[in-house]
Amino acid sequence: MDNFVYYAPTKFVFGRYTEKRIGELAKEFGGTRALVVYGGGSAVRSGAVGRAVRSLHAAGFDTFNLEGIQPNPADDRVREGIELVRMHDIDIIIAVGGGSVIDTAKAIALGALYDGDFWDFYCGKATPERALPVGVVLTIPAAGSEGSGNSVITLREVRNEDGEVVSGPVKLSLRTESVLRPKFAIMNPELTLTLPAWQTACGIVDMMAHIFERYFSNTPDCEVTDRVAEGLLKAIVCEGRRVMESPDDYQARANIMWAATLAHNGICGTGRREDWSSHFIEHEISAVYPDVAHGAGLAAVIPAWMEYVAAKNPGKVAQFAERVMDVVPAPGSVPVDIALEGIARLRSFFLNIGMPSDFAGLGVIDPDIPALVEALHMHKGESIGNYVPLTARDTKAIYMALM
Ligand code: NZQ
Ligand code: ZN
Asked: Coiled coil where (predicted)?
């Protein structure tokens, strides 16, 4: 196990009716003016935005709105949010929604206190040191942004110093240890009862992916972190099946909601080197094809990635197969056989919950694979990942496996 620092200072308030407490929680950070950020309508229809705003008003806040944040959020709405913050002297940002809304709120919180362009943080030109406080009312268990220090934003057009467009969209993830962790996250599983099956399934895949990216590591002797990850994965498979069969089951929704947070708040990565290549491979797809939901993209990429790396380094994949997918090794079988059986079971779990397994299933006809590979390595370096480091030849083979 490697040395580590683990600091996750978000306060989680979990359970029924908890969104009514948002005013009281926001008040702890001083200030009187809140920017409420939300998506394309689900949080208005469910009443979550209305209840949050009423609670903020009751606690003495004036509120301002930034609505209509789209999935795979882009820079233009962040810039609009930063202007609103400056214009109205906002003290706190409240995100009511999922990863796209929360990540937009985080980018606004960071950019509003910075003299330059907020994108400087995402492309590595500036280091995040301070941000306005962000509070969350979570409506979809998936991205885990409510408990992570990360934010993922797409820059629609990359321009040179003369303002000319030099390349298409780029989706980059900014990781911070604590600057971008929400101060508090309200998690009422009832708010997730309106999720369509597709979005529920996308969330299940994404939370599993967040564990895989940390679990597939060559750092030895992380038994505790391994067992936490395996326990969570087993619970997600079990509760995932339950929630897909009984979408109105509050307890299944509650378990899935808490699992998504624990999958991505860093606990599953403690003491070891992480991987993240499946996410990098997927982000290129949903940057260029923004109608691809992040979780759906991962459902296609992950089994293909696992098969590719299992051929070179089967050990941990075989461990996953035995401990999570309940593969019982046949006498005389070698790790790669066990690994492949585990991957087959994972793929069939994804298919059973309605997830796609290739580009066609993602609605991407005739993808430009050389362009995806080029952009991936331009953004993330010549070699990506750690469990098996992947160069352009390898990532091309993984994209090709989705044809
Ligand atoms: O826009 P509305 O109408 O709200 O609809 C949303 C949206 O269409 C809908 N939805 C959310 N809650 C709902 C609901 N529909 C009915 N009932 C509800 N209760 O779900 C759709 C997807 O929302 P989105 O916020 O995009 O989903 P998700 O949480 O999966 O976030 C995806 C984004 O997060 C990034 C992804 O790349 C993607 O951009 N990620 C962020 C991470 C982080 N910050 O740590 C890590 C992840 O790996 C991920 O990359
Ligand atoms: Zn993800």
From this structure: none
| Ligand 1 pocket residue status of 194, Cβ below 6 Å | yes
Q: Specify the DSSP class assigned to residue 51.
A: H
How many angstroms does the Cα of residue 365 sit away from the middle of ligand 2? Answer: 23
Domain boundaries, the chain: 11-191, 196-400
As for the ipTM of the complex, it is 0.99
Atom index in ligand 1 nearest the CA of residue 43 equals 4
10-66 confidence digits (pLDDT tens): 999 999 999 989 999 999 999 999 999 999 999 999 999 999 999 999 999 999 999
Say how many Å lie between the CA of residue 202 and the centre of ligand 1. 9
Q: Check if the beta carbon of residue 77 is closer than 8 Å to that of residue 66.
A: yes
The reported pTM is: 0.96
Topology (CATH) of 11-191: Rossmann fold (3.40.50)
Q: Name the maximum alpha-carbon separation found in the chain.
A: 69
Question: What CATH code would you report for 196-400?
Answer: 1.20.1090.10
Q: pLDDT by residue (tens digit) across 147-195?
A: 999 999 999 988 888 888 888 789 999 999 899 999 999 999 999 999 9
Closest C-alpha residue for ligand 1 atom 39 = 72
